[in-house]
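Fold this sequence, please.
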Amino acid sequence: MRIAVNAIFLQKDKLEGYGWFVQEVFSRLAKRFPEHEFIFLFDRPFDPSFVFEKNCTAIVIKPAARHVVAFKYWYDFSASAVVGKLKIDCWVQPYGFCSLTSRIPQLLMVHDISFKHFPKQVAWHQQLYYQWGTPKFLQKAKRILTVSEFSKKDILAHYAIKEDKIDVVYGAARENFAPMKWSDKVATKIAHSGGVEYFLFIGGIHPRKNLMQLLKAFSLFKKWQKSNMKLVVAGRLAWHYEDLIEKLKTYKYRDDVVMMNYVSDEQLAKITASAYALVYPSLYEGFGLPILEAMQSGVPVICSNVSSMPETAGDAALLTDPNNTDSIAKQMLALYKDEYLRNQLIESGLQRAAAFSWEKTADQVWNAILKTVK
């Protein structure tokens, strides 16, 4: 079987959710099934590390898909033409878009439909493309994958898709997210928080991640507790972040907020494992991978009680209303004042994270590929 994989988000040192999913799943599948051929389709020069095994081939198809018009051309014309010539059995589309012109059976992955819920937080031209294209992509694809039962229900609630066309495949924490020795934690804190304990937020900085509300909650926590606790923010400046950056200049506790922008995966694993707790008050997530990464690192979690996050966290996190500053701050305070509660959450979090694995995810994706080619 010849399987084409859209690999445009496999970019060295720039991997985020989409890219990590493709790397974790298809590096395993290529190794597990040497009798099958995996052809990775890039839109720009690629790093050789993404050619995982001998049965993997990489092809660069231009133009680079960097904006809406280029996306449309890449999927429907240039990439579609190449895939048609290669006699592909299944074309895997992991990023929510697929080709509307190709006759090759396509397996489409839709992580979430956040653009439906937060239309003003997406650039107008991207919003138009999502609104116009998503129903067409969902109809065109032979099979659909999504990352949680929440996302599956959300898709079905907004689009006329048969339920049995969609399979749920959970992600998992990567192996390098693990508990660290105390001495390594101390060194990480010295490097990034002046040697003091810190709450951690992970994610791209844009309104849906709700960082402004977290800053308000952190202010309340500091007011109530008078501690030297800091807040470390690890995530790239994504979009609509200007207002937050401007308000940080006059934020009362700005000296206790560490903005790290994008960090390497190795550095992120250390920062996560050294945190006092992860605070993740996002307004909407298809899955919420940082929750599991913190749990697997032996770090307690406070997360939102909306969208997929209760499904991801199970009973192993403190849940909070992301729209209620007091609710977030009270959970931060409860964790800070109750060491027994914190230890309980660490243990239950480790157990929860162990219930997910990339091996299981790879199994589920492979089964979806087999369904696609039937």
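The chain has a mean pLDDT of 94. The radius of gyration is 21 Å.
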